[in-house]
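To: structure desk
From: M.T.
Subject: fold request, one chain
Message: Could you run this one when you get a chance? Sequence is below, nothing fancy, just the single chain.
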Amino acid sequence: MKRSILISMVAALAIGTASQAAEIKFSEVPIPKTDEQKRDILASKSVVVDGKEYKIGYNTIARSGDVIGDGIYGLVYDKKGKPVKSKDGSVKISNSIDFVSLIQKNDKLFMISHFETRPAAMYITELNQDKKTGKLSSVWTKPIDFSEFNGLWVPCAGSVTPWNTHLGSEEYPPNARKLNSDGSIDDYYKPMADYVGGDLKAINPYDYGYTPEIEVINEKGDVKVQKHYSMGRFAHELAYVMPDKKTVYLSDDGTNGVFVKFIADREGDLSSGELFAAKWNQTSAKNGGSANIEWISLGKANNAEIRAALDKKPKFDDIFEATERNKDGSCPSSFSPSNYRSVAECLKINDGMEKVASRLETGRYASIMGATVEFSKMEGITYNPQRQEAYMAISRTEKGMEDNMKRGKKENKYDKGGNNDIKLPWNHCGVVYRMPVDSNYNVSKMEALVSGVPMKKDADGNSCRLDQISMPDNVTFIPNTDTLVIGEDTSYHQNDMIWAYNISKKKLTRIQTTPYGSETTSPYYYPNINGFGYLMSAVQHPYGESDQDKLSKAGEIRSYTGYIGPFPVIK
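Reply: Done. Structure tokens follow.
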């Protein structure tokens, strides 16, 4: 068969798959206008699937501080298993719920929730599912112990693996080069002292910044906890495992970040494998931009050997030698430039420390290896099996993603000492990119799918159009529907929103809004749990980021863990 005919057949098959998707239509949520609406969680009241209407809505499973069985949901514990207390003597309860997973174990259904704090909290909660209505309710909850790893740090988004485990994240790891003699780094790091009885020297900056995996091992809710050092250390937003159970894409949520791919040595086992960093070869700057992606190997490693290196309590100087730049901005001979996190450095890896550098200083290592470290706030990743393409949200195309600019004005800080591979217009409203994959689940291209649209700031502080996305954060795909779900974490919509985006029709539908000062977290679709579908959706820190003056009752700040649905199983 001629190659051209074969390509045409494959293309036709792909188009046919998309066109055969079930028709799904959400009732649209209005833009919140009244004070009452802006304090409420508004969600689609119904959904039509292939012509049949189903009643849905937002359902709260738990709020931070709720007593569930013998546990208090969101209570933060120290290394000895004692509640962490605030300065006023009250126990510390986190309102920063982020990712929530649903995990089935035989006849039981569990929810694993992690809270984005320092020190962090992670909980397992048994759920009851009403057999007739699908309604979910909590039975008991208890914290998950991370003392083996010196605690859990700022877990952000997450995913569920094809083998039914919770895959979390640790965001914004501390910069080990800044370590002070008392064990401190900066004010952001200092709260971890609460985990170890006040002594920061009892922990190491390199303890944090990895991918935790939680397996429910029995119907009692006992768990197995791992941190996958093999997958590198950076500001993990999330790790998403592709259907081959080996290929994983990982996003780095920060300024001048790195896009990472991991290929496990064995299916369903993330403890060892090869790490890669992306190089962006731009093909267009229009409408959010596009690029061809090549992957630079950062080498192989496994959890055990990196944990052994960690147990020696390494410092930055054990891994790198650093020196000043030449007057012309170049690095001296034998030193390599790095611009990770927009810090222009000249680094040399100490003898025999390449593997350790690749996992404990993944961003710096990727930078000196020539990868692109200019991505700005990479967020959620998901996969569409019908079109064989992945999606990734980038909250704002700015700084390193511009061409020697900062928010449209000249500034070379973010490209100084780097490749200046990405040269896009500034867009504070953000972009969601599509990433086609081949038969080996390899991404070789990124192109903008949908972008937010800036506007002049209005009286409520909105500076992205209210009928378009703003600072996209987490994304999930509803199988068999050609529908991508996009959640926001934005400063440019007064109320954060969740959208359903019909890929074929290029149409956005607003399906949820959240209260003042909160962000949408954890939108994640479960297509079939005992005959029902669920779109998980958490509401983080109401009144916590903006509009704090609107807070009228102390209890309003408690976060929500819940879902939109239940949905029918969509085939």
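Reply (cont.): The mean pLDDT is 95. Let me know if you need anything else for the meeting.
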